[in-house]
Amino acid sequence: MDEVKLTGVVSKKQNEYILTTDEGKEYKLFAILPWESVPTDFDTAKFEQFISEKVKVSGRLSGGEIWGALVHYPDDEDTIPPSLDDLRIDKIEKE
Question: What pTM did the predictor assign?
Answer without folding.
Answer: 0.73
